[in-house]
Write a structure and sequence with these properties.
By secondary structure, this protein is an alpha+beta fold. The protein has helices at residues 8-12, 24-36, 96-118, 165-178, 180-187; strands at 47-53, 56-61, 64-66, 69-71, 77-81, 123-133, 152-161. Helix 3 (96-118) packs across helix 4 (165-178). It is globular, with a radius of gyration of 20 Å.
Length: 198
Amino acid sequence: MQTIENDPVVKAKKDRGPRNGVDTPTLFATLDAVKAQPKLAEFRFRASNHWIKGAHSRTRMESYTGAGGQHEHKRVYEYDGDHPPVLVGADEAPTPVEFLLHALATCITAGIASVAAARGVTLTEVTSRIEGDINLLGALGLSKDVRNGYQAIRATFDIKGDAPAAKLREIVEQSRARSAVFDVLTKGVPVDVAVNAG
């Protein structure tokens, strides 16, 4: 599959300036640095969570490592999660499965902006709608035949810019193909759960 750095259109446009809010020269410099030192691509992201009450909890995004060092976010990022009253929560925040839809939408959208910038395309609008179908019989322990998570997710992207429709579709497809969140959702990932009880 074609990647950003070996796209012939990209190679011809490496001297272009920032586009779509993406610092394109830095993007290409980063690709070159990582190609020369692949260990720079190894990242570890962290989050900590604490329970508040009922189904309500709060997660804080912690420092992360990557690109050869440890990094702090420029400010504290905290996100609450809860369940609606129909699921015995207080609706103080979105549900965890809704955050999953948010993660998918923002991951692909960020990729669209970067791929378009790398290919010399100026975007004027990118919107999406993500829907997930879930049957809670599994999560509620009422059926062993129904999975706990989403049974299907659908994403629709609307994209406008100074390129033909076919090229805009290719940009979305390239972003989907490179999306870390899409990869985790469609291919799975090992998850180890440790418990310290006391």
